[in-house]
Amino acid sequence: MTLLQLKYVVTVAEAGTISEAAKRLFIAQPSLTAAIKELESELGITIFQRTNKGILLSAEGEEFLGYARQVMEQTRLIEERYLGGAQVKHRFCVSTQHYSFAVEAFVALLKEYGGAEYDFRIRETQTYELIEDVARLRSEVGVLYLNPFNETVLRKTLRENHLKFHRLFIAKPHVFVSAFSPLAQKPVVTLEDLAPYPRLSYEQGEHNSFYFSEEILSTRESRKDILVSDRATLFNLLIGLNGYTICSGVINEELNGKNIVAVPLAVEDSMEIGYITHSKVGPGPFGLRYIEALKRYTVGRDAPQ
Fold first, then answer.
1. CA-closest candidate to residue 105, choices 297, 274, 252, 301
2. Residue 12 contacts by C-beta under 8 Å, 6 or more apart in sequence?
3. What digits encode the pLDDT tens for the residues 207-260?
């Protein structure tokens, strides 16, 4: 196995076809195909599945691709540092539930380390996809929460996928509401206070189990339920419909504006918010820097017991 073969695998995965990858690599298509088949034979795995519509990564291939990308990134950093080469295009991806502090940390990472060229990605996504992203090494870090209701199921899922959970802070439940909502004037809201208003939640796709819900108390009945897939839509509906969503209470006015406020929710519950990493493959240099940024933006947020 060589660095060149790893580069071939990464390029083919990004291009989607052997022919397009061969063009980008400036080599003949048969030579590229032979190099990848040789690597698959050496490792005893199938990295790409050939179909009529092109090639697809196998499950083994997705895992291998994650390792290959990390090796290539480390190689680029070594070359840049010790061989005096031109700056390279750095790559990094994080997957997260919908938290403003995760975006703040991402912005800080880019401002400090992005360089002249980069391909950085932040995926605000469904909980199961977040876990799968880190398990398949598509993302180096994932940000999510545990609580007494979902902890047993999620920790089992994390173990099965060779993932580790690292706590950042404990949050007491809040609700996000419009600054113009009658609820915004209350020092604390109760579940009874929420009853007349629409409840907004993030949809979880095929894995719409209560255990993967991004909101606590998801099993509680509500007369008015709205599912959304992105934060901008949720915030617009909070304002337009006087709705609410149950959350950690952590919000950034600079990123989210002054029209959304957090109000404490009077329930006996908590959210242990943290990040996950792969137990067999540690985060790369940008993953470690992102984790440090996460810690900076969440320090001192632990709710009083």
1. 297
2. 18, 21, 32, 36, 48, 55
3. 768 899 999 998 898 999 999 999 899 999 999 999 999 999 888 877 777 899
Map tokens 């195909």 to a residue.
33
The kind and range of the H/E element at 190 are none
Select from 143, 170, 145 the least CA-distant residue to 300: 170
Angstrom distance (rounded) from CA 104 to CA 98? 12
3-state secondary structure of 165: strand
Whole-model pTM above 0.90? no
User: Would you call 96 helix, strand, or coil by DSSP?
Assistant: strand
CA atoms of 26 and 216, how far apart (whole Å): 52
- Pinpoint the alpha helices (H) of the chain: 3-15, 18-25, 29-43, 59-82, 100-113, 127-135, 151-160, 191-194, 231-241, 253-256, 285-298
- Report phi then psi at 97, rounded to 5: -70, 180
Domains and CATH numbers, the chain: 3-68 (1.10.10.10), 81-162+275-298 (3.40.190.10), 171-271 (3.40.190.10)
